[in-house]
Amino acid sequence: MLSRLAPAKINWSLEIIGKRADGFHELKSWFVPIGLCDNLSASEAIQQQASLRVCGPQSEGVPTHEGNLICRAELLWRQAGGQAPLLDWVLTKLIPHGAGLGGGSSDAAAALLLLQEFATRALSQTSLTQVAAQLGSDVPFFLNPTAAELRGGRGEQVLSRAKIPQPGAFLVLAAPGFGCPTPLVYQAVGAPLIGHNSLQGSTHSHSQEPSGFRCPSEPQPNALEAAAHSAFPALADFASAIQRHALFHLSGSGSCYFSVCLNFESAQKLASKVRSISHYCQISSMGPSHSCP
Asked: Residue 250 is part of which domain span?
């Protein structure tokens, strides 16, 4: 059996440039991996078919069939030419589903990396990245989630890499008892149409260090927040309730908010205040973790 941690991410900033002719939105966003993670294990299948079992405190509502990105990742990896034994998957879910923390995308990336380890015929790095991009705009980020990355296009382009901001800080993550489906939030954005992909051609590999962009030391506005509040008025009510205790920032399209605390003690104090009004409340470190919290 082999296992991999699948870290969550937060959007340290998120800017919407406009709506493209292909229907997708052009964005620029600093992705930051954090210590909260799922755990994905795989072993050679006992029977002549693959299986997926999902467990853990955040497993409710997570599909265990083709609707799960882990299953789709395996299918696309094999269609791209990867060869490996059939696998039984076990996902221990600690990242809340549909919260804007990238849990599903991270799980898919972990599956691809585990398939590479089991492979009798592995994919090239280029092919692996292409498969990841097919699975979702955020998935390529999680193939190497070791630094902050400025992402462009639909989120699949690497514009810059930087050190983790405030690496000694802790986050209080708080979410209501519902998710915010990304398509519904983007439908409420009302972004202007742009004539072309303004960032096309800016894609960089993980090994390169593009210059010209600096990761801000503090979280920046999330352009999806107003749209998320419009699409889900209950999220606006939740945000108002937790903002009475500290400055919270929306991650992705929601529904999870995060607040940056200088140390673990202050994070504990804040968490104790918002836990009673949150369906989900968790303290996490900044940056990727080597063990699940």
From this structure: 1-293
